[in-house]
Structures are given as C-alpha cells and as structure tokens.
C-alpha cells in the first residue's frame, strides 16, 4: 500500500485562504453598501421591515441545511470518489428549499402578527422563492473550497456577492422600493441555484447518490445540524424578541446597533474552512501532532486583526454610526458598543477544529447550553431594560457558548502521545500583545473625541464631512496600534503574511 502524500507544509496552509480572503475583501465593500444605501432611501419603517424579512429568511437558511453542506469539509478531503457526496448534498438542499418555502407561507402570517407589521405579508411570495432557491444553492462555494479549489471558490464569491448587492440596491435606487428589491433577490437566487448544479459536480467521479455514503454523511452531520437548529434561533432570538416588543422604526435602530462590518466573515470563515481541510490532510498523512500548531497559527493571526478592530469600533462608535448611517441613528451607539464584543469572541476558530475532528456532539452541547441560558436572559433583559437588555443578553450567552466550545478543543487537538490542555492551544503571546496595543490605541481615540467634541459638533452636513471625524479617528488608531505593536517586538507588516495568496488550486 503506497504512503499517503504529505500535505502542504504548515507554513503555507493559511496561504490557501488568500484567494478567499481577497475575494471577500473586495465583496465586503459591496455587502457593506447594502444596509448603508437602504438606510438612506427607505423610511425607518421600511428599513425595519427589510430587516424583519431577511431575519426570517436567514434563520431558515442556516437551520435547514442540518449540517449536511458543512460535512463536505470532513468527507471530501478523505474521499476516493467525491461525486456522491456532492450530488446527495445538492439534492438534500433542494428538498430543504422546498420545505423553507412552505414554512414561509405557513408562518409568515403569525410572525407578522408577532411583529405587529402586516406589511410583511405583501412580500410572502418573493420571500418564499428567494429562501428556497438560496438554500438550494448553499453548496456552491463550499463544494469548491472543500476540494481545495480555493481560487475557483473565490471567483464564485466575487460574482455571487456582486450580483446580490446589485439585486438589493439597484431596484431601491431606481424607485422600486422594497417590493422591487424582493423580486430582484428572488431572481438572483435562481441564478445561483442553476450555477450550483453547473459548477459543483465538475471534475468529480462516482455515482450521483450512494445510500451508504448518505447514511454516513447524515450520521456525521446530525449532531452539527441539531446544534445549528439550536444555535441560529438562539443567536437570532434577541432580534425576534426586540422586534415583538418595539415598533419597526425602533427595530431599525436596534439592527443598526447590531450592525457588524463583514471583517469576521472576511477573515474568520475562509481561515476556518482552510484550517478544517488542513486538519483532514494532517490526519490522513499521520501527522496529527502538527494540528495544534496550525490552530495556534490561525488564532494568532486572527487576534492581531479582530482585537484592534473591536477596540476601534467600540472607541469610535459615534463617528462610525454617524458616518455610515447618519445622525438619526446615533441612539443606536450604546447597543453597537455591546455588539462589537462578537468580533473579539471570533478569534479562536474552535467550531472548525471540532467539526474537522468529528467532535460535532461538543458543538451541539455548546449550542444547547447557549439556548438554555438565552431564554431567561432575554426574558429579563428585554422586559426590564428594553433594547439594551436584548443585546446584553445576546453577548452574555455568546461568552458562555464560546467557553463551552473552548474546553473541548484540547482533546480534539491531542494525540495518543501528547495530551493537551488549554494553556497549550491558546496563543497567549499574540493575544497579550494584540490586546495591549488595541486598548492603548482605543484610549487615544477617546482622548481625541474629548478634546475635539465641540469641533465635531460644528462639522457641516454631507457625506465627506460625516466621514472626516471617522477618518481622523481611524488614522490615529492605526498609528497608535502599529506603534505599540512595534514596541512589543511585533513587526505589523508581517502579521498577516501567511494570508497572502500562494500557488494553490
């Protein structure tokens, strides 16, 4: 029996994420433009309705796949014949789309009553079509990334996100308002669905479906799928509770407060995906002892980005909200400052490690704990503290869930020869230096606002003038962060060197 080929060197595995990172970096601007444009062309009531519609759609989008699509990251790097896994995944997702459309038709009326927003019913048909076809196209990028075809996946991300941004923004700019946008996104989802069947199966071999392999795939996916069935409603629970407690206009403020720049998805998701493939390669090659190094490398690089990003958003929250959404959304600043905690909590790619090592039951347990914690927190929080209670309840539940995942990571990365503990898997040095530098730079932004508060109040109206305070705060933060990093012995220009694109399929 021939030896398994050795995987790519550990020094370059994060470089495989480079094309995905660059693609998402480009499309992040397009994605960011969607809520910013809509905030200006829609009324507060319509803006709140827009968020409520997509809250329903995204809940179904992430729950109904039941972990089957994500299981491709586990099976494809290990498979002799990949076509059955791809074919049965796409058929499963097509069926899930049909279920989603039915749920939209059945549940939208009671949800509209819960939200005290009967206008939701005006968009029932396009919402059902959009959700169904988007679910059917879920495997598109995952099918490419899990086969190591990161460049092709990056191209698909570019094309898909560009079309999606155009479908959501252009109709509203042309005066078609929310109704025109919903029709356009339904057409976009149909294009994605057709592209999935045209692209995903290319180059794979084997039958389209295998009953035995499907049972194995479902057995692997079931714990993770059950976890997502708990996690997504739990993560979105504060949106539903707040939407049921306030008018659509106030809900629009809350959603702006919970707005996050797509930096987490931009870096965390491709890094986690490539890390999962890397761990599968190491396991296949009998070099699992290198897994902890791969995890620490990924977490360390994310720390140098996510910690300063969260610190800057917290410190410059008024400038950020005013510049991107306008002064009418400034009441959302306190909610926004709590919500940026989610960026800092994304440093450790724990769920990717646990899925790659088959610890999906640990993910389910984490989400179960979060769900159990969320219910009393939200009931008390929103009842007594309103919108602030909603976002604080969400943040506390996230901390509990991350801690539950973290305690399982050492076992997932251990080998029979070496048992690891928490102190072995966390990149303490990188966390300490990034945290110190971020806090110092954030303090400088607070000092700047205190010194120039009167000047900021006299800034004229207009996009350029609204961006000026944010730009000044950003330059000060970057200079401060880089200077403190340099003083701790870190060369900032080398921090993300492992994420640059390299020769890979």
Give short descriptive properties of this protein.
single chain, disordered N terminus, mainly alpha, 505 residues
Provide structural commentary:
The protein has helices at residues 18-41, 44-63, 72-75, 83-114, 124-136, 139-145, 150-173, 177-199, 211-245, 248-257, 263-284, 291-315, 317-325, 333-339, 341-344, 350-356, 360-406, 409-413, 422-425, 428-457, 463-487. The chain has 505 residues and is mainly alpha-helical. Helix 2 packs parallel to helix 5, helix 4 (83-114) runs antiparallel to helix 5 (124-136) and helix 7 packs antiparallel against helix 8 (177-199). It has 21 helices and no strands. The radius of gyration is 23 Å and the shape is globular.
């Amino acid at each position: 029996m021939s030896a398994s080929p050795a995987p790519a060197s550990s020094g370059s595995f994060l470089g495989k994420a480079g094309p995905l990172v660059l693609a998402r970096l480009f499309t992040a601007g397009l994605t960011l433009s969607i809520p910013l444009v809509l905030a200006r062309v829609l009324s507060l009531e319509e803006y709140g309705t827009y968020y409520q519609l997509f809250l329903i759609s995204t809940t179904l989008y992430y729950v109904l796949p039941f972990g089957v699509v994500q299981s491709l990251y586990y099976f494809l790097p290990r498979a002799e014949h990949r076509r059955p896994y791809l074919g049965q995944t796409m058929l499963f997702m097509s069926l899930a789309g049909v279920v989603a459309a039915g749920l939209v038709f059945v549940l939208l009326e009671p949800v509209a009553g819960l939200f005290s927003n009967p206008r939701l019913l005006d968009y029932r048909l396009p919402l059902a079509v959009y959700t169904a076809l988007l679910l059917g196209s879920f495997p598109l990028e995952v099918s490419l990334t899990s086969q190591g075809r990161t460049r092709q996946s990056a191209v698909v991300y570019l094309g898909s996100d560009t079309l999606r941004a155009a479908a959501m923004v252009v109709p509203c700019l042309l005066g078609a308002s929310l109704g025109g946008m919903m029709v356009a996104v339904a057409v976009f989802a149909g294009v994605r669905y057709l592209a999935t069947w045209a692209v995903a199966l290319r180059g794979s071999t084997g039958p389209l479906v295998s009953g035995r392999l499907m049972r194995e795939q479902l057995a692997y996916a079931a714990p993770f799928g059950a976890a997502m069935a708990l996690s997504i409603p739990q993560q979105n629970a504060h949106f539903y509770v707040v939407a049921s407690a306030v008018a659509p206009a106030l809900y629009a403020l809350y959603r702006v407060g919970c707005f996050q720049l797509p930096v987490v998805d931009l870096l965390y998701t491709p890094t986690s995906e490539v890390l999962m493939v890397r761990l599968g390669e190491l396991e296949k090659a009998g070099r699992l002892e290198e897994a902890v190094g791969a995890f620490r490398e990924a977490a360390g690089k994310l720390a140098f980005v996510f910690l300063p990003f969260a610190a800057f958003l917290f410190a410059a929250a008024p400038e950020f909200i005013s510049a991107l959404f306008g002064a009418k959304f400034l009441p959302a600043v306190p909610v926004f400052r709590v919500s940026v905690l989610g960026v800092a909590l994304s440093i450790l790619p724990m769920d990717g490690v646990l899925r790659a090592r088959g610890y999906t039951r640990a993910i389910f347990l984490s989400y179960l704990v979060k769900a159990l914690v969320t219910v009393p927190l939200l009931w008390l929080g929103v009842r007594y503290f309103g919108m602030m209670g909603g976002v604080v309840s969400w943040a506390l539940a996230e901390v509990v869930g991350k801690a539950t995942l973290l305690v399982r990571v050492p076992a997932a990365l251990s080998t029979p020869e070496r048992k690891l503990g928490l102190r072995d898997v966390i990149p303490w040095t990188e966390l300490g230096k990034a945290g110190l530098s971020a806090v110092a730079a954030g303090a400088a932004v607070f000092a700047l606002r205190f010194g120039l508060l009167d000047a900021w109040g006299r800034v004229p109206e207009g996009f350029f003038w609204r961006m000026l305070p944010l730009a000044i705060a950003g330059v000060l933060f970057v200079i401060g962060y880089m200077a403190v990093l340099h003083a701790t012995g870190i060369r900032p220009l080398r921090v993300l060197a492992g994420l640059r694109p390299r020769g890979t399929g």
